[in-house]
Request: fold
Amino acid sequence: MVEVVQIIRIAPGRHADFLKRRAAIKSIRERTGAPQARYMQIMTGANQGAIAVILTFEDMRSFGDYSQRLRGDPEWRKLRDQTRGDPQPIVTLVDSIITETFEE
Reply:
């Protein structure tokens, strides 16, 4: 099992924008074969208030296949480029983690 975890922080006053962007990303993820994303709010520590976005894949191959489809998706590339060029981004990526669980 492979879990991809991205810790994001929503800019103050931009929660409605985040929800709109999340809907667009959900549509892209569904089209490119991603599993359902889980969103969890971090309650304590240095990242209190941030959001953990978690995608769980069967294995590294399925994660790699999804990543290739995502990179090739024109709508995703357009959204990614808009986000990268935004002087006042809706979210800030705090951290990104990939974990892989092996059977022993």
